[in-house]
Specification:
304 residues; Beta Polymerase, domain 2; seven-stranded mixed beta sheet; globular
C-alpha cells in the first residue's frame, strides 16, 4: 500500500488542509480493518453515497467530504455484528446499540478511540463513544404493499424519536416540550433500551410481502425519502482505486450513482455533508475533549 499524502492541496477549487487529510487517513485505517474482517468471513460490503461517488469521480475522497459510508445486505451485516467484538481491537471500536449502551442510531459505526469526532448537537448530551468514525448501513427489503411499508416506516420513526428522547439529553428551548421529555424518561426509566432497540431492528429487517428492492430502511427514520435499489445490485463486488488503497463497489455503480445523484453525477458540485459541522481532533481523545468542553473550552467546527 502506497503512502498517504498529507500535504495541503487545492482540488476542484477547494483547499484540502493537512488536518482534513489526517482525518481521512484515520478513516482509511478503519476501512482497512473492516475490509480485513469482511474478507476473513467472506462478507460483502460496498462503498455508498458520497464515498461511492468519490471513488468513481475522484478516485478518492470528494474534496469537501468528511466521512466514509458503506452498505451491506442485512444477512452479512448481522454476521459482521456477531464477530465484531472479537475482531475489532483498540484503538478500533465497533459501535452498535448492543456494544455501546448510550448509542441508538440505526446503523453501525467503527470508531477510533484515540481521536475525536463529535457532532456539536450531541457532545456531552449523549453518553456514547465519539471518536472519528465511518458508517456501515444495513440494507433491508421493502414491502410490495405500500400501506404495509408506510405503517412500518411510521413505527420505526416513532421508536427512533423515543430513543432520542431517552438517550439524548439536549434540553429543549420549549419548556412544555422539555417537561414532556422528562415525563417520558420517567415512564421508561426501568425499561431495557437495548431490548427496545432489538424490536426496532426486527421491524426494520422483517417485512411481509417483501419485494426485490432494498434500501437503508433504518437510516430513513430521519424523514428522508427512500432510495430503493434492486437487491441484485449488491450481489457482485469489484475493487476500485481510492486514495492509497482500493474500495469495494457494486458492479452496478453507474446505475446506483445515477439513482442517487442524476445522470450528471460526474460533474463536481460542492455540497455540504449531511453531518453539518463536526468537531475533529486527531491527536486528542474524545473523552478529554468532552471534559474540556464541560469546562467551557470551545473547539473549531469543521464545516464539512
Amino acid at each position: 500500500m502506497k503512502e498517504f499524502n498529507l500535504e495541503e492541496v487545492v482540488d476542484c477549487g477547494f483547499t484540502i488542509t493537512s488536518k482534513r487529510k489526517r482525518v481521512w487517513q484515520i478513516e482509511l485505517e478503519m476501512f482497512q480493518e473492516l475490509d480485513r474482517v469482511c474478507k476473513k468471513y467472506h462478507l460483502k460490503f460496498f462503498a455508498d453515497s458520497g464515498t461511492l461517488l468519490g471513488t468513481i469521480r475522484h478516485q478518492g475522497f470528494i474534496p469537501w467530504d468528511d466521512d466514509m459510508d458503506f452498505v451491506m445486505l442485512r444477512e452479512d451485516y448481522n454476521k459482521l455484528l456477531k464477530v465484531a467484538e472479537k475482531e475489532f481491537k483498540e484503538p478500533f471500536f465497533f459501535q452498535t446499540a448492543y456494544s455501546d449502551k448510550g448509542y441508538y442510531r440505526g446503523h453501525a459505526q467503527i470508531r477510533n478511540s484515540n481521536t475525536t469526532g463529535i457532532l456539536p448537537y450531541e457532545g456531552n448530551n449523549v453518553s456514547f463513544h465519539q471518536g472519528i468514525f465511518i458508517d456501515i448501513f444495513p440494507l433491508d427489503f421493502v414491502s410490495k404493499n405500500q400501506l404495509v411499508e408506510t405503517i412500518r416506516h411510521k413505527r420505526l420513526v416513532r421508536r427512533m424519536k423515543l430513543f432520542d428522547i431517552l438517550l439524548n439529553r439536549t434540553p429543549s428551548p420549549n419548556k412544555i416540550k422539555e417537561n414532556v421529555k422528562k415525563m417520558i424518561r420517567f415512564v421508561y426509566q426501568k425499561r431495557d433500551v437495548q431490548k427496545m432497540y432489538a424490536t426496532y431492528e426486527k421491524i426494520a429487517s422483517h417485512v411481509p410481502f417483501k419485494s426485490e428492492e432494498v434500501c437503508k430502511v433504518s437510516y430513513y427514520t430521519n424523514g428522508k425519502k427512500y432510495k430503493l435499489f434492486p437487491k441484485k445490485y449488491f450481489e457482485e463486488v469489484e475493487y476500485k482505486d481510492f486514495e492509497n488503497t482500493q474500495l469495494p463497489v457494486s458492479k452496478e455503480y453507474n446505475k446506483i450513482l445515477t439513482m442517487y445523484y442524476g445522470k450528471d453525477y460526474i460533474k463536481p458540485q460542492n455540497k455540504s455533508s449531511s453531518h453539518g459541522t463536526v468537531i475533529y481532533e486527531v491527536d486528542e481523545k474524545y473523552t478529554e475533549v468532552l471534559n474540556k468542553m464541560k469546562e467551557g473550552k470551545t473547539y473549531e467546527n469543521f464545516d464539512l
